[in-house]
Design brief:
By secondary structure, the chain is mostly helical. It is 67% helix and 0% strand. Helix 8 packs across helix 9.
């Protein structure tokens, strides 16, 4: 198959992401180039170094919570509504956890992250959309009189960290004897009731 001269970055980054997820950090740039339908030289012309290609390819996709927000609006109470949102957030974290683990295990991670001191690194920035989702939900519930004023910023942090830990535990095979739904329900009740 002839190689395209103007292959969009998205095609190259999708191919790189797939190969990195399959083969790990040591994935061959030759294999990435073949998957993308470009020459290996094109990869280095566009990205300069393999680590730059890696970190661009591993940027997390943005979460889409539109359906979850709509579904939560139809719930009978705030606990059911929050359960819909945390379920959607956990599903998102499960889907991106392989990428997160690769990013965190890359030897150049510290160098890349230090370049972004004081802000969430752009690679992991999309995951913080979950925190925004929860903060907006809590603000809305307080405004509606369904929840009392509390430190929802801290509760949001605890909730996000708990979901992140569950997604990581599932990814590395730690056994959970409870169903995810039952666990999520307990988390919501403990934090909000």
């Amino acid at each position: 198959m002839p190689r395209q001269k103007n292959t969009p970055d998205e095609v190259i980054l999708d191919a790189a992401r797939e190969v990195f997820l399959q083969d790990g950090i040591g994935a061959s740039t030759l294999k990435i180039a073949a998957k993308a339908g470009v020459s290996e030289g094109v990869l280095f012309q566009r990205y300069g170094q393999k680590k730059v290609l890696f970190f661009k390819a591993m940027r997390l996709p943005p979460p889409n919570f539109t359906e979850a927000m709509q579904a939560s609006n139809g719930c009978a109470n705030h606990l059911e509504a929050l359960l819909v949102l945390v379920t959607s957030a956990l599903d998102y974290l499960r889907s991106v956890m392989p990428m997160v683990m690769l990013v965190l295990s890359h030897p150049a991670r510290q160098e890349i992250f230090q370049a972004h001191t004081g802000q969430a690194h752009e690679l992991l920035f999309e995951a913080f959309g979950i925190s925004r989702l929860f903060r907006e939900f809590f603000d809305q519930q307080v405004d509606l009189g369904r929840l009392r004023e509390r430190d929802y910023a801290t509760i949001t942090g605890i909730l996000f960290s708990t979901l992140l830990a569950r997604a990581l535990h599932e990814q590395i095979g730690l056994d959970h004897h409870d169903s995810a739904h039952a666990w999520l329900k307990t988390v919501v009740e403990v934090l909000i009731d």
